[in-house]
Amino acid sequence: MNTKTRDGIKAYTPLSLKLYDWWVLRVSNRYAWKCATERHLIPHFRNNMKNNHLDVGVGTGYYLTYTPDSCTISLLDLNISSLEAANARVGRNRVKASILHDVFEPYPSNLQEQFDSVSMFYLLHCLPGEMSDKAEVIAHASSALTKEGCLFGATILGDEAGHNVFGRKLMKIYNKKGIFSNRTDSAEGLASLLTRYFHHVEIVVEGRVALFKAERKKEMMLAE
């Protein structure tokens, strides 16, 4: 396992995943990050997912339960507990592939230019380093997209977003433990990162969360 990503995934144990939907999607999203799951995140997922889809950083597989039965779903994560939880939730018969993989590493050749859409929900803020250090992650995800494919997702912004008392407390705890690495993350930094790899980028900030969509990928550049 790449040491870069160890801290970000260690919180996702079988026990914590049982509490994830309640704590993150109901409590934290509504009261800390001010971005209600039902109002903002679910529609963002449903509106951008396409027929052949790869979900990266799968959590519990929550958003995938909102996909049409006609969609082909693949999963990619470094945490085996998350993959197992998502498989169980979505239904193993609906999952085409379940891939144990570090997002900082290039995707396997059989995943190159295969997907119409790739989602990253609450992944970027869990990855180590500044926003610019996560360029490899975006580069590798773009390599899995078809020419007309779409990368979309959501990430919690840093200190400059103006968190409330609850949000500041969670930010302090999560960043200290290495679960988050997002103190300096901004919508501007995210836009700069995405425009390195895509011609068309849209970012909407809801509360303290940036909802992003990137399309029309550029000729592949390897992250330095």
From TrEMBL:
GO biological-process terms attached to the record: methylation
Keyword annotations from UniProtKB, A to Z: Methyltransferase, Transferase
Domain Methyltransferase type: 54-151
Keyword Nucleotidyltransferase found: no
Gene3D superfamilies: Vaccinia Virus protein VP39
InterPro entries, per database record: Methyltransf_12 (IPR013217), MeTrfase_VrtF (IPR016584), SAM-dependent_MTases_sf (IPR029063)
Molecular function as annotated in GO: methyltransferase activity
Protein name as annotated: Class I SAM-dependent methyltransferase
